What we know:
Layout: E1 41-42, E2 71-74, H1 76-84, E3 90-95, H2 97-112, E4 121-122, H3 125-131, E5 141-145, H4 153-158, E6 166-172, H5 177-190, E7 194-198, H6 207-213, E8 222-225, H7 228-237, E9 241-245, E10 251-252, E11 261-267, H8 275-279, E12 283-286, H9 298-318
Parallel strand pairs: 3-4, 6-7, 6-11, 7-8, 9-11, 9-12, 10-12
Antiparallel strand pairs: 1-4, 2-5, 3-5
Amino acid sequence: MSQENRGKRPRRNTRRKSSGAGHAQSGSQSGNQSGGDSNTLHMGGSSRYYQQGKGSSKRGNRDQRMPARGFWLYGQHASIEAVLNAKRRIHRIVTTENGLETLRSALDEAAGKGLGRPQPEVLKNSAFAETITDAPGHNGIAIDVAPLMQPDLPTVIEALPANAPACLIVLDQVTDPHNIGAIIRSAAAFGAVAVVAQDRNAPDETAVMTKIASGGSEHVPYVKVTNISRTLAWLEEHDFIAYALDERGDSILGDTKFTQRAALVMGAEGSGLRRLVAERCHHTISLPTLPPILSLNVSNAAAVTLYEWSRAAAQQAEG
């Protein structure tokens, strides 16, 4: 952050209506599927993959929420990162022969770290397709997991280095798991510390969300809060400046001078940001597009905005 902007607190935006930066579409969710054990071929070899290890999450941690139910996580990148994440509870691993080869290196690494993982059940391709349904792009891998227990927002903020750039994505009424998964992937790619959503509107972690996040869910917390506008007020007390993305913004994204701690606030197309949320934002910025496209999907807009923030953060670090 430049010397000119350090220490200054801009006035919040008082505009009463804000349209969203993207479109939150409805998406399907993959449900739990039971296994076809009669077709299962168990892999041989070392049992070191399969002992109980240190990877289980503790129920009593005050800053985590116990997930309600599990789901099938699938796909190459999501599965590899889940196997390597000590906080991810894994109940069952089902693969094809090719899928097992894809996952083998991660299983070796997890074993070396003492993460107990269940023995993979290796199925023929046809049996896998019958056992694991509604999992497009599975790459021959499906893992029965518990949703991650997520930290609360104060825990995330307390862990931040005092003088380092930090960015949060705050979602107001963005409900599509595809969009949220893509935003989590971009957040991981560009260094955001969390994706924040309102608990009564946003979906829980799902198979679709983790697949689209492509491993990002194992690295970026997906934090639920009770009230977005009050959360923005609390973030302001912790030196975060809120930037609302709006096609009618007062300034354009490329000209924005981000502060050291930034909260990027995005709503769904159509309803946009709610009035109280918009009024809690200090700046309103737009992402110009060329006709006939008037705006981007919220996940695409988030990716572009996060890139611009990460570029600005790198320049601040150099300067």
